[in-house]
């Protein structure tokens, strides 16, 4: 890979903006951000204004481009899903398998091993279930839910060793404190979600190493003034990360603004899409575990619902969440970009992504001033 010199756009390095500067990329990595009058030799890429940022990182993607991971848990499906989200600025994601059979989980794990090696945007795997609480099942199948067993712990550890990044969503009711500690010490990223637990039960698991909360506010015990629940524990605990779905349907913007102001610990909320197969597709319905999910158009973006009205994932893409954050959540553009780049990278421990420091992967996205994606690059190569 030769050297590339990106000119013409404001550069956001993950922390701050650089004006009238150039981004230098060599060997698929960031070399430097430098003054325009001090440029090395290389291929010049001239951008028409706007913003050049690290590519977006999404920790929760169930599907895209007409494909659901649960329907075909293969490396090819993961590649198609990643490709379906790339036009919206996402250059790294975790394909997410929702509650399913053990056979589906095994297939997804084997697929992730292959997809990560392909180095085309699949950064690991997210297993959202089956260790969830039936009381907070959401669109998941309660009959497939069960507690974490010791054999599951050992399996998760082996998967983490094989693919690098493994995120597991578990309900506090379905996992012991000792199991959380063992998983966390082995590098598995544990997130509490789909749980009706008390704040005390959640805090015990956070203190044992659970790193995050899956889609804050959704499918969990809510904040009460005498029973703070999982929501209260997540907002109050200083080391806990929280993914949020900012689509105008999953959470009222007033609740998200409140959480953003109240969360202890700087930069601990980040965007996820929880996207289903219809992102990047013109279809209006799909099936989920044998049930029809339909697209209802309207609002900031369309929403996805089961026949009983239950939300079934989202129809939002990552650049839309950034626009939503700036428009409805009182976020500066810099903070909205951090919530799609730097913060999810830190949560997932992807140290060479989500920023444009020297040595970082040159996974890039170019945005217009109106926050529309014009181009993406993986390791410095246009996609």
From TrEMBL:
It holds the Pfam family Amidohydro_1. GO terms for molecular function: N-acetylglucosamine-6-phosphate deacetylase activity. Keywords: Carbohydrate metabolism, Hydrolase, Metal-binding. Its EC number is 3.5.1.25. It comes from the Bacteria. The keyword Hydrolase applies. InterPro entries: Amidohydro-rel (IPR006680), GlcNAc_6-P_deAcase (IPR003764), Metal-dep_hydrolase_composite (IPR011059), Metal_Hydrolase (IPR032466). Residues 52-381 form the Amidohydrolase-related domain. The keyword Cytoplasm does not apply. PANTHER family: N-ACETYLGLUCOSAMINE-6-PHOSPHATE DEACETYLASE (PTHR11113:SF14). Belongs to the metallo-dependent hydrolases superfamily. NagA family. This is N-acetylglucosamine-6-phosphate deacetylase.
């Amino acid at each position: 890979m030769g050297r590339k010199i990106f000119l013409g756009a404001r550069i956001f390095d993950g922390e701050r903006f650089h004006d009238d500067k150039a981004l230098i990329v060599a060997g698929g990595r960031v070399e430097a951000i430098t003054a325009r009058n001090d440029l090395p030799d290389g291929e010049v890429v001239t951008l028409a204004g706007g913003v050049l940022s690290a590519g977006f990182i999404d920790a929760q993607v169930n599907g895209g481009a007409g494909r659901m991971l649960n329907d075909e848990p293969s490396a090819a499906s993961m590649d198609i899903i990643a490709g379906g989200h790339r036009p919206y600025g996402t250059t790294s994601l975790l394909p997410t398998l929702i509650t399913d059979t053990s056979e589906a989980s095994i297939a997804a794990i084997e697929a992730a091993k292959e997809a990560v090696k392909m180095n085309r945007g699949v950064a690991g795997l997210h297993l959202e279930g089956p260790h969830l609480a039936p009381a907070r099942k959401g669109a998941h199948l309660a009959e497939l839910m069960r507690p974490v067993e010791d054999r599951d712990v050992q399996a998760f550890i082996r998967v983490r060793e094989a693919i690098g990044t493994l995120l597991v969503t578990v309900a506090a009711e379905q996992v012991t404190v000792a199991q959380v500690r063992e998983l966390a010490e082995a590098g598995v990223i544990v997130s509490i979600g789909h749980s009706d637990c008390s704040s005390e039960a959640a805090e015990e698991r956070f203190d044992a190493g659970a790193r995050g909360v899956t889609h804050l506010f959704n499918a969990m015990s809510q904040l009460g003034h005498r029973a703070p629940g999982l929501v209260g524990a997540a907002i109050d605990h200083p080391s806990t990360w929280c993914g949020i779905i900012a689509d105008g349907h999953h959470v009222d913007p007033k609740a998200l603004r409140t959480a953003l102001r109240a969360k202890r610990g700087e930069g601990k909320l980040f965007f996820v899409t929880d996207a289903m197969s219809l992102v990047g597709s013109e279809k209006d319905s799909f099936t989920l575990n044998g049930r029809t999910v339909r697209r209802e158009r309207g609002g900031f973006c369309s929403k996805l619902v089961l026949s009983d009205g239950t939300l079934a994932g989202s129809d939002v893409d990552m650049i839309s969440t950034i626009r939503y954050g700036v428009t409805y959540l009182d976020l500066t553009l810099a903070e909205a970009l951090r919530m799609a780049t730097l913060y999810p990278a830190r949560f997932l421990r992807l140290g060479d992504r989500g920023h444009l420091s020297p040595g970082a992967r040159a996974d890039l996205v170019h945005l217009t001033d109106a926050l529309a994606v014009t181009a993406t690059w993986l390791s410095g190569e246009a996609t």
